[in-house]
Design a protein that fits this description.
The chain has about 425 residues and is α+β, with helices and mostly antiparallel strands. It has 16 helices and 11 strands.
Amino acid sequence: MYSVDRLSSGLPVLTAPSEGVESATVIVFAGAGSRYEIQGNRGISHFLEHMFFKGGRKYKTTKDVSAAIEGVGGDFNAFTGKEYAGYYVKAAVKNIDLSCDVLSDMLVHANFPQEEIEKERGVIMEEERMYQDTPMYRAGWDFEQLLYGDHPLGWDTIGTEAVIQSVMQKDFLDHKAALYTADNLVLAFAGKVNKTQTQGLAEKYFGVIGGTKKNTFDAFTTFGSDRVFLRTKKTEQAHLVLGVPGVSALDPDHFAHKLLAIILGGNMSSRMFLNIREAKGLCYYISTEVDSYLDAGSLSTRAGVDQSRMHEAIGLIIHEYDQCAQSGVTDEELTRAKEFFMGRVTLSLEDTEERAHFYGKQQLLYPAVRDLPQYFKEIQSVTKDQVNALAKRLLVHGQLRLVVIGQEENTAKLESLIA
């Protein structure tokens, strides 16, 4: 299913072959997410992601980078999360050398020209404004801030305008040197590849990466004490996120956590969808999901509802939480949730990018990598009693947190609804 080898520098090289495809994805994962930041450099991780695309030694400009990959019909992009960042190129396997060449040039030889930094400040501020104008996104960020408080897990990855407007070339070079090191990266290949091939490519293009990481992140210890956050804004819909602290990615109940969310609101046959959207016609979108970090997590339901029925929607979501906590889930619900979960994973891993992500993220963050049979075995081993005990422990009124973006103006009323 997959294999892991290391270069002489210590850089892990993960290979996850796929049959029946003609493409290959190359991803570099870095333990360099926004939770590594402090107040004085909030946003530098995401800004750095943008700056890697400004070119290196061979591909000197953004145009050179994009023309090289798009010239063969490939895809390339990057992302910055709370715990890790990633950079990938996906193309026909005959172009895998080009994929590695472009990716390594970006990551190894980037020099972050000051004139490009100045231009990119405006781009990032426009990205921030886009999210501010998109309540479905903004509400999720507000929920994490409410839940995790003044801790890097609660901070927006975009960062603060003060940092975005003041960070300089040396700051990027220092941040890269501190975290983009052989012991804090994973190079992952997926698709029509084999271990001999990927080892050769890794040594040729990424063998010069060395060093040891100089920064760590603070452990998360305490959830925020505030329970409601209201962002009053003129919107056609009221957007809400209502949830509770959950369990971490390393918790023994990790898979029970995911299955509980699926049963509550993970698909069109879930309780939230059937009982609130279909039966009441209250919303267009409603879903329940979990976020799981190394030492914290959450379970939350988000929805977009008519302004005049927002209070009703909050009450109905809480009712579904209460029913689940008090009466538990059924055997049929748990079986369907397991099959849904495993089916979605199976479908996603047919995509080489998703396959590289599935294995590479585990290699970077977790003590051990689960291959697909082990992953499915752990899903199947979750019992109804385990899910019910978790629901009873998590879905309690005293732990509820609520974020609302809309025309509501009465925070006290919202607080009373979740009391």
